[in-house]
Design a protein that fits this description.
This protein is mostly helical. Helices cover 79% and strands 0% of the residues. Helix 1 packs antiparallel against helix 6 and helix 4 runs antiparallel to helix 5. It is globular.
C-alpha cells in the first residue's frame, strides 16, 4: 500500500508542477515566485521518487543501496527500469541536490529545460514501470 500511496503522491506533485509551469523561459527567470514553486516541486518529486525506489528495493528484497543514486542502479540491474532512465533519474537527483543545497551556482536555463523537457516524461516512465511491477 505504501508503494501505491507514494506513486499517487508523485503524480499529484507532477500535476501541480505542470499547472503552474510557465510556457517560456523569460517568465520563469523573471518571476521569483514561479521559479521557487517550480524548484520546490522538482525537489519534492525527486525525493518522492527516491523514496519509492527504496520501497521497491525493500519490497523485492534487493541489495541494499549505498546511497540515493545507487538505488537507481539496483533497479536497473534488476531490469525494473532501463539504463537510460536510471541515468536520467541519477542526474535529476544531482540537480535536486544542487537546488536544495545550492551547491555552486544554479543555472536557470538548465533547470527550466529539465522542468519543461525532461522531468514529466521521466516521471511518467518511472511510474509506468513501477505500476507494471506491482501488478
Amino acid at each position: 500500500m505504501r508503494i501505491k500511496d507514494k506513486t499517487e503522491e508523485i503524480e499529484i506533485f507532477l500535476e501541480e508542477l505542470i499547472s503552474f509551469l510557465p510556457a517560456g523561459f523569460d517568465e520563469y527567470k523573471t518571476s521569483s515566485m514561479v521559479k521557487s514553486a517550480c524548484e520546490r516541486h522538482f525537489e519534492k518529486i525527486i525525493e518522492a521518487i527516491v523514496d519509492l525506489a527504496f520501497l521497491i528495493v525493500k519490497e523485492k528484497g534487493l541489495k541494499n543501496p549505498e546511497d540515493d543514486k545507487s538505488v537507481f542502479n539496483i533497479l536497473k540491474d534488476n531490469q525494473i527500469i532501463s539504463e537510460k532512465l536510471s541515468e536520467r533519474l541519477k542526474n535529476a537527483k544531482g540537480m535536486r541536490n544542487i537546488l536544495a543545497h545550492e551547491y555552486g551556482s544554479i543555472d536557470d536555463e538548465t533547470v527550466f529545460h529539465a522542468l519543461t523537457e525532461e522531468l514529466e516524461d521521466d516521471v511518467k516512465e518511472f511510474i509506468k514501470e513501477i505500476k507494471k511491477l506491482m501488478k
